[in-house]
Sequence to fold (203 residues):
Amino acid sequence: MLKFATDTAAPAVLSVMDAIYERRSVRSYLPKTVDRALVRNLLDAAVQAPTAVHEEPWAFVVIQDPGTLKRLSDAALKTLQDREHGVQLPGAGSRHFQLPENVFYDAGTLIVIYGKPLGPFVAADCWLAAENLMLAARAIGLGTCVVGLSVAALNAPEWKKELKVPDGMTAYAPIIVGVPSGDTPATGRREPEVLAWKTGLSV
Ligand SMILES: Cc1cc2nc3c(=O)[nH]c(=O)nc-3n(C[C@H](O)[C@H](O)[C@H](O)COP(=O)(O)O)c2cc1C
Fold:
């Protein structure tokens, strides 16, 4: 049975289409902890994703300790300043992205999706699980945001050791989760660019 993120009357679960169209990257959260049962719901939704040759190559780390999140955010910001290992983000500094003081926007929960070294589709599987998780979160009233800025730090040996992540595994999708502090405006999208649409019908 699904639980909901708000204490008030449980909202109706959103339809898949509503969750897809209403999901937004949330960067401002209420200082509330997402309880374990809700996190479990999200992990359960994540692992329903399609998975190449049914490998299910994912594993998860959940961080809800504010001190650890702050240290990890600082480590992530440091990787960006580090010329040698710096992450070049196309569009960084654009209207879509400003470097924040805390890469996790003070969210109380970070879920990291890791991939096991099981072939060429591991990254795809992990990102499909990530989207499932984010849509499920939206459906139950929680906000999420992928924090790509933290990937390099999460894959550093010292963080793998601290988070008990085996050497061969790779962090793909770090996702913050929390109760949004307000509405997040839609960012808009370009029309789908269709390169070809072959119907077999003559025109
Ligand atoms: C792979 C990936 C990495 C991202 N990394 C960050 C990030 O580090 N920080 C951030 O604030 N948003 C990040 N985002 C969120 C995007 O900025 C956001 O999805 C995009 O602007 C579209 O907005 P929307 O998600 O609200 O539709 C990331 C998204 C993806 C897919």
Notes: Residues 16-85+102-177 form a domain with the NADH Oxidase fold (CATH 3.40.109.10). The CA atoms of residues 158 and 164 lie 10 Å apart. The beta strands are 58-63, 109-115, 143-146, 170-178. The pocket of flavin mononucleotide is lined by residues 24-25, 27, 96-97, 145-149, 187 (CB under 6 Å).
